[in-house]
Amino acid sequence: MTVWTGVLSWVLVILVVVGVIPVAAGLYQFLLIPFHAIRNHYPEAAPYFPRVAVVVPAWNEGAVVGASIDRLVRLQYPPDRLRVYVVDDASTDDTPQVVLERAARYPGRVFHLRRDQGGQGKAHTLNHGLSILLAGTWVEAVLIMDADVIYQPDSLRKMTRHLSDPRVGAVTAFIREGGVDPGYLTRFIGYEYVAAQAAARRAQNVLGVLACLAGGAQLHSRENLEAIGGRIDTTTLAEDTVSTILTQLNGRRVVFEPYAVVLAEEPEGIGALWKQRLRWGRGNVQVTRRFSGLWFRPWKHRGLGGFSFGIIWFSVLLLPFAMVLSSVGLIGLHFLDNDLATSIFEELWFLALCTYLFITAMTVQLDPTTGRRSWREAIAFPGIISLLVMVTAFSPELLTRTVPGLFGLRMEPIGEDAITLFLYAWLSLCMPAAWLAKRAEATKLGKVLSPALLYLVGYGPLLCAITVDSYIKEIRGAAQVWDKTEKVGKVMA
Amino acid sequence: MTGRHRATRRAPTAKPAAGAVGSALPEQAPLRAEIGADRRHERFLVRAALIAAILVAVVITTRVIWL
Predict the structure, then answer these.
(1) Contacts with B37 from chain A: Cβ below 8 Å
(2) Which residues does chain A have within 8 Å of residue B60's beta carbon, measured at their own beta carbons?
(3) Residue A394's pLDDT is what?
(4) B-contacting residues in A 74-113 (Cβ below 8 Å)
(5) Closest to A257 measured CA to CA, from A211, A303, A312, A218
(6) What is the DSSP code string of A433-451?
(7) Residue A371 covered by a domain
(8) What is the pLDDT of residues A233-277, one digit of tens each?
(9) In a domain, A483, yes or no
(10) CB nearest A50 (choices: B14, B32, B38)
(11) Is position A389 within any domain?
């Protein structure tokens, strides 16, 4: 081996190791969760009932907004301390009639605020409402929500108890997928929400820094809203993340309350999910750029600029890059030093297997209801093919010798090579494969096949593919459209 | 970092707005008990992590024996 091949080998090993960072970051986050048993905000919480204005942005939400209002006024909260303001973004359906009918039914508790020029997106709609609310003195806290979500009766009072601590500026709840008859995709989303909220946000509570207030459940103290400018950011597609970061930069804490549960209806097709998550993904890219002077600079903010938070943030944002680099490293090593490639592959994927088992076992226990409903999707979250790759790392000769041997066959070296290269490349290939599942859904035959394809390829790779699309859209400077996710009001009561 | 705040607890119940009818605020004791219960319930996270760790330990042990 020459010096140059030695150097190249090291470079390729480093590329593979880059691919391990997001796996390790995921494991680290989940290892933090049990510490929430001792490091949480409950010792500082106390019963507290500020005057809360619930702001509901609504654009053509006639199908769902009436039921939402009915449930909001029935929340376990002093009636004279709770008002509902529906900010109607120039709806063209029956939203105004529905809201005005509720305003008449609940006098002094439900208000209809109409924007005559609409269509600019949620943040503009919210700002219309906030400018009116903050001009008065009644409001002590503002709950920002979506028109279609359903708050469990005790959820608001469980959130406000954290605001009794004046160091807390905002509180968020656990958004749980709540479709009545969930399809395969909504079951995937349900599981994802437990992992990304009930699990990851507990870990962030432990770290003392939160990445994002859930868009459908943001409770701000009035002081906090005024401190961050009295309005919601309109320059990015992730206005909730910007509010979260600004709150913490202003010296206030943001708390996740896992026992405040809010049910939400989620997209039922890959195309609709792609549209929604593309908005979120692009928003995250924009937020990363906007706060570029903050990351990995603990002297700017101990939590947000900390190493732990930076690794967690960028592990999500750059996961597709890491996966591709890892594949490139393994394939390069295969041609340069096959034995080294084999042993690194086995160790990398075995680590992935252990992380997957730990995360899955934790997640299904955190929310047993979703765990029972989505156990198949929990297992298939990384994709059946990726599971097979993990098993191969566990038992290296499974595909090349054991399985063919069962049929009395013996694989030729070229076949072994092809399978090995496929296994190495799968970390990258899974993303275009997920994109194919989305494309297939648009066709008649594909509509039938796309669910099976998604189980094979995995929901995780689908999210990575959407992240890649968000990079592309941002680089191209694609128009910033606030695409509303279609909702039909099928959330369970 | 700007805007540091006094770490004093807010009054459990704020005064009603001028002209507003007095609030029928819920009893404090059950709500405090609920906070305590939620705090204690978080101990289940330790059990969940232990179960997950045992699962991983079994897999690692199996691999060590297997190879």
Answers:
(1) none
(2) 354
(3) 79
(4) 76, 78, 80-81
(5) A218
(6) HHHHHHHHHTSHHHHHHHH
(7) yes
(8) 999 999 999 999 999 999 999 999 999 999 998 888 999 999 999
(9) no
(10) B14
(11) yes
Q: Which two tokens stand for residue A17?
A: 């190791």
Count of C-beta atoms within a 10 Å radius of residue A253 = 23
Query: Which candidate, A110, A103, A48, places its Cα nearest to that of A82?
Result: A110
Q: Kindly state whether B29 is in contact with chain A, defined as any CB-CB distance less than 8 angstroms.
A: no
Residue B65 touches chain A, beta carbons under 8 Å:
no
- Asked if B53 reaches chain A (Cβ–Cβ under 8 Å), the answer is yes
Q: Which chain A residue has its CA at the smallest distance from B31's CA?
A: A47
* Single-letter amino acid, residue A479: A
DSSP E strand boundaries for A252-407: 253-264
Per the rule left: phi > 0, alpha: psi between -120 and 50, beta: everything else, A374 is alpha
Find, among A485, A435, A137, the residue nearest to B20 by Cα.
A137
Q: Percent of chain A, pLDDT > 90? A: 80
CB A55 within 8 A of CB A130: yes
- Total count of domains within chain A: 2
pLDDT above 60 for A477:
yes
Six-digit token string for A374: 């989505």
More confident residue, A407 or A253: A253
pLDDT digits (tens, 9 = 90+) for A20-45: 999 999 999 999 999 999 999 999 99
Cβ contact, residue pair A44, B3, below 8 Å: no
Q: Do B63 and A394 touch (CB under 8 A)?
A: yes
Residue of B nearest to A357 (CA): B56
ipTM reported for the complex, 2 dp:
0.89
Of B5, B63, B66, the CB nearest to A166: B5
Alpha-carbon gap: B48 to the closest alpha carbon of chain A (Å):
6
Q: Which of residues 199-218 of A touch B (CB under 8 A)?
A: 202
For residues A163 and A277, membership in a common domain is answered with yes
What is the reported pLDDT for B5? 47
Single out the residue in A254, A278, A302 at which a domain terminates: A302
Of the pLDDT bands very low, low, confident and very high (cuts 50, 70, 90), residue B14 is: very low
Q: Choosing among B8, B38, B60, which should be mutated to test the A contact, i.e. which has the most A CBs within 10 A?
A: B38
> Is the domain of A274 the same as that of A336?
no
pLDDT digits (tens, 9 = 90+) for A168-200: 999 999 999 987 788 999 999 999 999 999 999
Whether A80 and B16 lie within 8 Å, measured CB to CB: yes
Let me know whether A318 and A298 are in one domain.
no
Within 10 Å of residue A20's Cβ, how many Cβ atoms?
Answer: 17
For residue A293, tell me if it sits in a domain.
yes
Q: What is the pLDDT of residues A65-80, one digit of tens each?
A: 999 999 999 999 999 9
Domain that includes residue A65, residue range: 45-302
Same domain, A212 and A342: no
Residues A318 and A229 both lie in one domain: no
